[in-house]
Write a structure and sequence with these properties.
elongated, 13 helices, transmembrane helix, membrane, mainly alpha, transmembrane
Length: 327
């Protein structure tokens, strides 16, 4: 069946179900279960025959919302925060994995620009990072303490300051998406170029290995900024590509979805701030094995929560619905 025919045949049913979910309308449990079974059947069909379509993206999101509607109990409502991070958000975010991939590729392209530009023009790093920072870092390198900047100030003060600043950057990256995604792209590019120039600056001084100190907190910090950028693109693209919605409805949904993505990053920014405030200052004296273990664990945590876990949870959800259908 052609995708257009498939959508035309089932569109009315999906819209009725979606309206009921979004308006918190009271639905007979049997009817809700019946709708959900039909929806998962349509989702399985779309995954088989339209794997890269907007239809699949739409059904994925609708199925995640439906799952939460069905399996939320009064007991779970008391643990709504836990439920959000453990079940609701990962299922919801699965639909935006492709947007996350595009965001990552854009960011890495910007990092590459920063690397190549700094390798070919030593003054480029001053243009990006500023004379004051570069001069201070050169002075620290000459004094034998290239990472001295991370030892200044109190642990608690640095932790709070960095955490608040990171959250501010994430919110700004998301909010900038309102300008048709262009604002978010600018933030991704500027941060990516800055990172590439920074790393290459240390490489030019033969101190690339010292950057492991920065990656203690930077692994989570940079990863989550990319995810916040994804949130901005979700909002901006919702207006540019409204799908079956009006532009106003699409934008409202995109803004809500993007905000949900930003909220999910808050615990990670707190963790990154804690590492930078209390652990990064110890990096130069830390055994390399321990430093790389922290970096690797941080990367695994982000990749698992935002990529692997949502995929696993989606498969489990589909398996449960299939068993219920057969049972």
């Amino acid at each position: 069946m052609r995708e257009a025919s498939f959508v035309k045949q089932n569109k009315e049913k999906w819209l009725v179900f979606e309206k009921a979910l979004h308006n918190n309308a009271k639905i007979n449990p049997d009817d809700l279960a019946s709708y959900y079974i039909q929806l998962t059947n349509d989702l399985s069909y779309a995954q088989t025959y339209y794997p890269d379509s907007k239809t699949l993206l739409y059904l994925n999101g609708l199925a995640a919302e439906a799952h939460q509607k069905i399996y939320t109990t009064k007991r779970e409502s008391k643990n709504k925060i836990v439920s959000f991070w453990m079940y609701e958000f990962p299922l919801f975010f699965r639909a935006y994995h492709k947007t996350l991939l595009y965001t990552f590729l854009i960011f890495m392209a910007a990092v590459s620009i920063g690397v190549v530009s700094t390798l070919n023009d030593a003054s480029f790093v001053r243009l990006i990072l500023g004379d004051a920072y570069v001069n201070m870092t050169i002075e620290n390198i000459e004094n034998g303490e290239p990472m001295a900047v991370y030892k200044s100030g109190s642990e608690l003060g640095l932790f709070l300051g960095i955490t608040i600043n990171n959250i501010r950057v994430a919110i700004f990256a998301f909010a900038a998406g309102v300008f048709f995604s262009v604002g978010t792209l600018y933030i991704l590019f500027s941060n990516g170029i800055m990172l590439g120039a920074f790393i290459t600056f240390f490489y030019n001084y033969g101190l690339l290995d010292k950057t492991s100190t920065i990656w203690l907190h930077g692994t989570i910090e940079i990863s989550v900024i990319v995810i916040a950028g994804c949130a901005g693109l979700v909002m901006g693209n919702s207006f540019l590509f409204p799908k079956t919605y009006s532009r106003r409805e699409a934008f409202m949904k995109g803004a809500k979805d993007g905000l949900k993505i930003v909220v999910s990053t808050l615990p990670f920014f707190v963790l990154a701030g804690f590492i930078e405030g209390f652990i990064t200052r110890l990096g130069e004296n830390m055994p390399p094995v321990l430093a790389y273990a922290i970096i690797f664990a941080s990367l695994v945590l982000v990749v698992f929560y935002y990529i692997i876990y949502p995929i696993q949870l989606e498969k489990i959800t589909q398996l449960i619905s299939q068993k219920e259908q057969n049972g």
